[in-house]
Each structure stands twice: as C-alpha cells, then as structure tokens.
Design the sequence.
C-alpha cells in the first residue's frame, strides 16, 4: 500500500512536469518587434537594416510579413524610405525621407527615422519589449583591509563623521541601469512637422501670390497660412485652411483643409481634407480624406479615404480606402479598387474591374480576368441544348470566377452557328461539391461554307445555375439549367429559349 501510494505521487509529479514544459519554454522565448522590409529597385541589405533598427530602438527585432499586427513597416523606393508604425487594428502612421548615397548612410538614416516613428507612436510597445535592466555586481572587496581606527581618531571623528582612510580602495562609481535613448533630429519638410501630433501655429491668416517668389511674403515657402490665393504658381510652407490657384499649387509641409487647382497640386507631407485638381496631383505623405483629379493621382503614402481620377490612381497602400479610375495601382489594399484594370499586392477587400492582378486576395476579385497567386485555371467541355459542342477555360479566384469559351451548332444545309461566350459568376464550394451561378454574353454567328456571316447572326444573353462534384482534385463533372435570350441583328425578332447543360472540367 505504501509503495503504491509513493508510485502514484511520482506519476502525478511527472505528468505535471510534462504539462508545464511547453508553458515554460514559451515563456522563455524572447519577444521581438516585427519589422516588414520591402525594397523596390534598391540594393539595401534587409539584415543590416533590421540590425540597425534594433540597435537604435534597443529592442530585439524580427523580420515579418507586411500584414502581421502591431509592427513597423519599411519600404524603400526611388531613393526614398517610408517607415510606418502599424497598430493592432491595422492603422498605419508613417513618414518619408530622402536617402543619402551609400548603403551605410542610407541604413543609418532609416534606423533614425524608425526610432522617431516608434518613439512617437509606440512607446508602450517599446517599453514592453525592452530587456530587463541587469543588476550591477557588488563592488569588489578591498585588496588590503584598512587598519583599525585608534581611540583618538574615534573621538576626533565622532562629531565630524567618517573620513577617508589612507590605503583603502575607494568604492566604484554607481552603475546606471539605463541610458536615455538618442533623439535624432531628421530635417525633412515631408516628415518633420506635418506628421507630428501637434502642428506649429499658423504664421499668416491669408496670403497672395502672383508667381512664386513674387508674393506678399517672399519667404512664404517657409511659413504657413490659413488662406492661400495664387494666380500662376503658389509655393507655401503649409496650408491650414484653403488654397486656390488656377494653375499650380504646391505645399511643402502638408495641407490640412481644402485646395482647388486648375492644373496640378503638389503636396509634400500629410494631407487631411479634400484636394481637387483639373489635371492631376502628386503627393508624398499620408492622406486622410479625398483627392480628385481629371486625369491622374499619385501618392507615396497611405490613403485613408478616396482617390478618384479619370485615368490613373497610384498609392503606396490603401488603409480603409478606395481607388476609382480606369487604372488603379497600390501596394497593400485594405479597402476596394474599382476600374478597368486594378493592380495590387495583398488585398483585404475587393477588386472590381475587367482585369484584376494581385498577389493575394482575402475578399473578392470580380472581373473578366483576375490573376492572383491563388488563381485556379480549369479546362471545360460541355454540351447545351442551344449549342451542343462547347469548350473553354474557367478562372476561379475564391468565390468568384470568369469563363471564356466558344460553342458550335450545325444547322440545316451548310450553315453552322458559332458562338464565342464570356461568363462571370459566383462559386460556392462545399467539400467536394460546388454550386455556380453566372451571367454570360455571346455572339451567335451563322456562317456558311465560305465562312461569310449570314442574316441569322445575333447576340445572346445567358443566365445559368450549375451544380457539380469534384471526383478527384483534377477532374469534375457538372450539370445545370438556364435561359438564353437571343437578339437578331436584323432587329425583326428575338428568341427566348430554356437550355440544359452537362459537362466536365479538368485541372
């Protein structure tokens, strides 16, 4: 009985030790600041850059993807660096700076900028990651113990306190557990004042410019104003209110309010409010608001709001924002792109257009051609009541797809109906089963033996519902039903025909 009780206690202790081992190992793993590094066309070493940032912040760092939670984001492009702090909700707050020539100088500049951004935006995170200060070792014992004091010395020193004893080794100076971090000053009009939490007071209530430097104040490019009214070319330090120029308006230190420009606006620094330009605009810094142009918009920074132009939009990233233009381009997208062509890196939201290109889409990519890393291309062969012979390809991205095909139907005599078709639909997989619903458009061309178009040519609209099963990972079968609405070129009649279909898909 005693041996059994002892064995049970030992077994319980061993089981508890095994349960605590993962917890202890996890607790011993060092915490580190996540830093994502992206270099477009530059040759900077990622390892050296992260090491410099770790040295500047005095915390360990680790490389990570751009969409990890609370982290620092570093992007180098065209001789400039963008460093942003991303909070736990995904909100990015960043700054730009021009990089000097030479890898060592550029890396040091990036590290200094990272230090400024992190200390301004992530004090609590740095404090949590900072290593515990080491307890200084006790001072070494004296090599030669001092001689015992005499009675006369005791009587003499009783009123004046202890004195230095000849031959004794003085104690070492106190060791400081921590050193105050450096606070480098980086002078760049695009990051120095407009990105700080509090801006300088406005210098002038209003200002007039003919064509800079012909202005009421020749030094206006170093000052701020509430209202800027220009005729040909305005160049101011900062606008805190409203700016107007029929031709070109430039703000070197940010724009907060609204601006209206006939041709082009140029903003270095953060923009908050609304910017309107007849032709286009270029900005370096984040946007919190709306910018609208007739032709183009290019922003080296994050867009929290809307970019709208007639031809082309470009931004470093969309942070709960949207782009609307014929062609849209962005790095990371948290929001939506709507246009004829949309190009992005990682998308958390939607791309809607004829052609969509992205590295990864967590959401929807709706278009005739959507290309992502998760794109699945399948070959289709099917038969329908209206076109017995059909072949094509199906491009699936998540829960949306597009399909391109061509069908044929022999008719009376020597004529043949040839039907190119385009479909856009939604795809719902359920284990090995899938359900599709799509809308299609086609051209129904009646051709004779000489391949000349006849009067029977028409256009057709199709609506279909399809169900199928993936027999293997690379082969499936499907069937469905729908309606074809055919409109003839002569305009004299139209047909509405129900159709059933059955087919197979490969790959």
Sequence:
């Amino acid at each position: 009985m005693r041996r059994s009780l002892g064995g049970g206690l030992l077994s319980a202790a061993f089981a508890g030790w095994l349960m605590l081992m993962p917890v202890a190992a996890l607790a011993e793993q060092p915490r580190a600041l996540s830093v994502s590094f992206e270099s477009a066309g530059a040759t900077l070493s990622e390892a050296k850059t992260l090491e410099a940032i770790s040295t500047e912040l005095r915390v360990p760092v680790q490389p990570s993807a751009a969409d990890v939670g609370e982290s620092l984001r570093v992007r180098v492009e065209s001789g400039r660096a963008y460093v942003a702090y991303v909070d736990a909700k995904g909100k990015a707050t960043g700054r730009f700076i021009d990089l000097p020539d030479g890898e060592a100088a550029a890396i040091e500049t990036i590290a200094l900028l990272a230090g400024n951004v992190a200390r301004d935006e992530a004090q609590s995170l740095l404090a949590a990651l900072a290593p515990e200060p080491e307890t200084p070792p006790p001072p070494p014992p004296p090599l030669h113990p001092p001689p015992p004091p005499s009675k006369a010395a005791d009587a003499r020193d009783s009123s004046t306190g202890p004195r230095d004893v000849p031959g004794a080794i003085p104690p070492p100076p106190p060791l400081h557990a921590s050193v105050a971090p450096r606070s480098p000053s980086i002078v760049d009009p695009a990051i120095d004042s407009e990105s700080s939490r509090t801006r300088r007071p406005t210098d002038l209530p209003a200002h007039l410019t003919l064509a800079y430097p012909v202005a009421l104040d020749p030094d206006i490019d170093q000052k701020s104003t509430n209202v800027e009214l220009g005729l040909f070319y305005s160049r101011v330090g900062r606008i805190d209110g409203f700016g107007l120029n029929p031709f070109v308006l430039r703000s070197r230190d940010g724009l907060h309010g609204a601006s209206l420009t006939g041709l082009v606006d140029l903003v270095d620094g953060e923009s908050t409010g609304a910017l309107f330009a007849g032709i286009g605009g270029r900005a370096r810094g984040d946007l919190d608001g709306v910018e609208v142009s007739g032709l183009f918009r290019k922003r080296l920074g994050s867009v929290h709001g809307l970019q709208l132009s007639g031809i082309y939009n470009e931004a470093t990233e969309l942070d709960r924002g949207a782009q609307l233009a014929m062609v849209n381009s962005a790095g990371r997208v948290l929001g939506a792109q709507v246009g004829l062509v949309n190009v992005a890196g990682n998308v958390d939201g939607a791309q809607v257009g004829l052609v969509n290109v992205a590295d990864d889409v967590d959401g929807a990519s709706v278009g005739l051609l959507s290309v992502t890393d998760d794109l699945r291309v399948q070959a289709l062969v099917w038969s329908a009541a209206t076109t017995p012979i059909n072949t094509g390809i199906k491009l699936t991205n998540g829960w949306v797809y597009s399909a391109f095909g061509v069908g044929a139907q022999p008719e009376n005599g020597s004529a043949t109906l040839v039907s190119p078709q385009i479909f856009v639909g939604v795809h719902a997989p359920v284990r090995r089963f899938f359900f599709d619903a799509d809308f299609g458009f086609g051209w129904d061309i009646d051709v004779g033996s000489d391949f000349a178009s006849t009067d029977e040519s028409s256009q057709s609209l199709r609506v279909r519902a399809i169900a199928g099963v993936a027999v293997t990972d690379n082969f499936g079968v499907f069937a469905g039903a729908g309606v074809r609405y055919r409109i003839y070129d002569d305009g004299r009649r139209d047909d509405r025909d129900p159709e059933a279909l059955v087919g197979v898909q490969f790959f």
User: Anything to note?
Assistant: The radius of gyration is 35 Å. The mean pLDDT is 81. The chain is about 15% helix and 50% strand.
